[in-house]
Amino acid sequence: MAAKKPKYKLLFIVGFPRSGTTWTMWLLGQHPSAVVCFHSGFFHALKPVREWWKDTGGHGKSVYTYAKNDKNSKVDESKVKLNSILSLEEFYKHSRPLAGYVFDQMASCSPDTKVVVEKTPENLVFSEWILKIFPDAYILHVIRDPRSIFPSLRNAAYSWAPIHELPVAPNPIEVAKGWMSYLERGRKLSQMTDRYKEVHYEALSKNGSAELQEIYSWLNLPADQSFCDQVVEAGTLDKLRKQKGLAPKGFFRKGSAEGWRDELSLSDKKVMEYIAGDLLDEMGYELTTDRLTHKPFRLRMYEGTSKIVQKFARAPAYLSRRASKINPLNGRLNPNKQMQVLKKTLIEMSK
Fold first, then answer.
1. What's the topology of domain 9-42+86-282?
2. How far apart, in whole angstroms, are the C-alpha atoms of residue 234 and residue 248?
3. β-sheet with 9-14: strand ranges across
4. By three-state DSSP, how is residue 207 classified?
5. β-pair partners for 339
């Protein structure tokens, strides 16, 4: 039995982490007809079930039937894989009642709910799956300059966010690559639904009231200029920092669209613009360094140490521990320190 269509709109706010999705969620949540949810984790929780069902080679994921063969008195064994009984499309179909119930409960928090806003940045990874379950869902993609994202992510790693819980390592190389991957996903998603919209953090910071009114209009939520002005004024980062329970201490930083110019080293800028320069330029972000025609030494060293770390996976324990120190994915050792540890390790391996 198909789930009934909800009486409210579902909006998923997505984007690369530290792009301003929390601030965007807060602004939209000020509308009296909107209910917002901060990181429901629903699709993260359901992912293992989907992967379990899709597994074609997993041991035990089969249905066995036994029948006696009258001719030779032997037992025939028939094995049917679970995913051949229930297709992936059927899995999506039958997942919707559960998902619908979860979001219905969110909507029931207010009798005036017209839009349920769910904010989980990484849901962009599940966006195709979300559209399979909720084909009428709205998706708002918040985009921010990756050169602003990197210092924000780095600050999070050294303050309120455990480094192992971050979606990418807090270094400029992984941030640039991850940002490009998210934009590519967004472009693919825009071809799948006409309910996909992008908003730039920089535009929201500069022209908050106008951008907010446009998003409200997109969702068919009535909001005049005066109301949007009040929301933006109440949602300054200085005021949000003082709200208890909204986010951990240090979560809201400066919020400056141009702060990265002073926070990043020249090496950081060069390597990020080398990796993502074409896309940065296409998105209207100014490049501040001369485009390199060759791969930066920092990037070559990073890729080289990454390969060595992979080889160390089967090495003795003491070398594996040493490898974890030079692993550029941990984002904690500076390049000079990584090189010192790397040289020492290579000398020991050559003995």
1. Rossmann fold (3.40.50)
2. 19
3. 34-38, 115-119, 9-14, 138-143, 196-200
4. coil
5. none
